[in-house]
Here is the input.
Amino acid sequence: MNIGEIARRAGVSRSTVSYALSGKRPVSEETRRKIQRVVDELGYRPSASARALANGRTSTLGLVFPPAGNHYTGMQLDFIGSVVEAAAAYDYDVLLSPSGVDSDRSFQRLLGERRVDGAILMEIRLEDDRVDHLSALAFPSVAIGRTARPEGAWWVGLDHTALVERCVHHLADLGHRRIAFVNRPEQLLRTGYESAHRGLEGFTKAAAERGLTVRTYCCGDDADSGQTCVERILHDDPATTALVTLNEAALGGLYRGLARAGRHVPRDFSVTGVVAGRWAETVTPQLTAADVPAAEMGRLAVDLLVERLDHPDAPPRHHLLTPPISLRASTGPAGARPDTDTGTDTAR
Amino acid sequence: MNIGEIARRAGVSRSTVSYALSGKRPVSEETRRKIQRVVDELGYRPSASARALANGRTSTLGLVFPPAGNHYTGMQLDFIGSVVEAAAAYDYDVLLSPSGVDSDRSFQRLLGERRVDGAILMEIRLEDDRVDHLSALAFPSVAIGRTARPEGAWWVGLDHTALVERCVHHLADLGHRRIAFVNRPEQLLRTGYESAHRGLEGFTKAAAERGLTVRTYCCGDDADSGQTCVERILHDDPATTALVTLNEAALGGLYRGLARAGRHVPRDFSVTGVVAGRWAETVTPQLTAADVPAAEMGRLAVDLLVERLDHPDAPPRHHLLTPPISLRASTGPAGARPDTDTGTDTAR
DNA sequence: TTGAAAGCGTTACCAT
DNA sequence: ATGGTAACGCTTTCAA
Here is the structure.
């Protein structure tokens, strides 16, 4: 079933059918109805490929996210979901590309074969070849996160530095003096992940300001690593009374490690960090944290990208978000005697 | 940059370039090299739209998953990730469609506009209009899950009935006599979600076989609902000593509710169910559960779909998976005295 | 208000 | 082994 067939049955030309359907030029009410009847009868829909070929637009957005090798986090899930829904509202479809770098086959296909009109990039690194590549090509894209030099770029990001600073100040205000920082995996830090770097930066800065004794750790994106990490922390400095983390996937393990070590949250150990709200609420006690507004960020990214596609010459825009800390139940005043002997280590 | 330009520069015809690139007909080593040089120099890649229009194949798979209104679960994330990676291995891209029913605009676009060569459907219902629609159209698709009458269809599914039965038997073997079943939200049950129905069926059957006293509950897909659900369970029958659940998203809340009620897992309350392994390990104590092999299922679905696309007349195939229960730390022998007084209700 | 026809960039059939 | 040329199904300019 193609447009010619519709034209034939409606007794009009193909161009008239096209215009009747797109509304790009006036069509008499009568012929429009005639056409619509045939279209409805046959359930006709124009072929996306043909249309894309003819007008150069695919009505598809690319969503570039890292391959599954890195465990996915709940946050990423929320991004994907909100991007897809926001795009659907603009009648855009979303094509997924599991690409960490711009040399990925999938990434090359996306651009080289012109499969999408624009792209949204997740998991930005401070020096990101995908971003560079795209901007060199002047290819319409929006980053979720910002590179080291975000000027002139389109992005929506989180102010991880400020967020983590706030976490530290919150803990310092509660009297904590010895705090640990649980970052994302070392490999991600080495690769230059934005959140890992800026978070660490905020941590270091705020800790210095408050004159705190701190240690920083990298931690795998899974529960086991979280548990191990806590063991290291308490081994390195048993007097540690709080931690702040960016590592959502390790959260459950962090809690478990603390429990195993006989530390009660929040009575004698406080935990906070930057985590998507939904996931902060699955742990007990619920996590006091800066809630990553993943859904909102996905939506904003789509809004920005669509705007950029509609107005190719629009000046670069961005959104830097700094959500407040949601006070829940995982932080409390320091002061309880840290349980330095290892006797309770065997507690179930 | 198009194929004509390449042809011109290489001093050959467009068809020769096409054949040199696709290998669909022999090309002399010399011209092939000449062409390849030009292609590499200019970084030429054939346009996906033009190619799709010409040969009728988009090299794109559709992944139909429910809209975000229903909270996403970790399991779904694992599916999406594994489908995308498996597809990439076959050089297919994945187009996401957030569609609950076949009347969704997004779903209609996917099919009507012929945007994809085949589709993978998530979150199957026992009576599923999308499945019916697709099979009526003889459109190549594979379901993750199976409908009430899966004969003649392509799918990969989990034997929820058997899985939940096993959970019940496991608990019964441990001496539990009063068990609760925590299902997915009522709305999903009403809509006919496969896992919710078959899981419930397995629960009822096994409970009858073992002569257990049971109650079944629906529970929202979030931690708060889980907590509330436990309160209801213990209110309805304080002598309940175990529960089995399909509700991954509520798991954290279930644990919290139990802790609040002063029930220690697994000493005086056992928890088990069907949950993706990664998520079963984030709670403390780690959940003894039938691990949903989400990644494997995604991969299998892609394998099946690609096979179906390559061999249009291949007979229907499917995979029914019954992963074993992974014994972790959340179940134990019944017998501890349930703490029926409400005094501990105020425990932090 | 409508129609005719020229693309859009490939692929694949028919020749040579 | 290679070239010419019709499709593929739409959009859009140009004419009327």
In short: Chain A has 14 helices and twelve strands. Residues 338-348 of chain A have pLDDT under 50 and may be disordered. Residues 67 and 213 of chain A are 37 Å apart (CA to CA). Residues 2-4, 14-15, 18-19, 22, 24-25, 46-47, 49-55 of chain A lie near DNA strand D (CB under 10 Å from a C1').
